[in-house]
Amino acid sequence: MPKSPKPDKPRGAAEAELAPRPARRPNPAPAKSSSAKSAVAPGPAVDQVDASYLEGLIGYNARRAALSVIGVFLERMAPYGLRPVDFSILSLITHNPGITARQLCHALGILPPNMVGMVSGFERRGLIERRPHPTDRRAQGLHLTAPGLSLMDQAERTAMQLEQDVAHRLSAQEQKTLMGLLQKIYL
Fold it and tell me: Is residue 124 part of a domain?
């Protein structure tokens, strides 16, 4: 019997999952009494880790690659105050002036309540403005302000450079093939 597909996670949540997480502290071992003896003999030491099973999984490799890229992204986008989801939203507004919040939600898989807060935050930062939609009186189009355009011009140039830096071992054709294969999985 085939498994039913899991519903897609909103990409905002997925991107948040990809952000590096702080290391967890192990729970302290309970104190042993001096009279208690261990009934379990120590196992053999591992000299070389065998990760071949994990390295044969698409999800494992995609996550490892994403973590590498996102680590560099977070570092380089910090001066702009942009997280991956922020960059994605502002990039879509940059290249689609007048896009609605509903269209952004659909394009990025973000839940509408989450989008409301992000759009309001961009507005408070002076990066975007809302204008009446030309054909739908209930909707508002989102547009970058002059400071928003300036920020995204710099941020997108930074993103292009970091893409070149993290993919420097891949040829242009390999990069194109990789992107096409990844898109086959999620589109």
Answer: yes
Q: Could you tell me which of 125, 128, 124 has the C-alpha nearest to residue 143?
A: 128
pLDDT for 7: 44
Tell me which residue range forms the domain holding 182: 54-186
Residue 90 phi, psi (nearest 5): -65, -30
Report the C-alpha gap between 67 and 153 in whole angstroms.
Answer: 25
Core vs surface per residue 36-63: b (16+ CB within 10 A) or e? eeeeeeeeeeeeeeeeeeeeeeeeeeee
For the stretch 98-139, pLDDT in tens is 999 999 999 999 999 999 999 999 999 999 999 998 888 888
Nearest to 16 by CA among 169, 144, 123, 118: 118
Name residue 135's amino acid: T
Angle at 86 between CA 5 and CA 61, to 5 degrees: 45
CA dihedral in degrees (161, 18, 49, 57; nearest 10)?
-90
Q: What are the C-alpha distances in Å from 52 to residues 9, 44, 49, 55, 65?
A: 28, 20, 9, 5, 16
Phi, psi of 99 (to 5 degrees): -60, 145
49 in any annotated domain: no
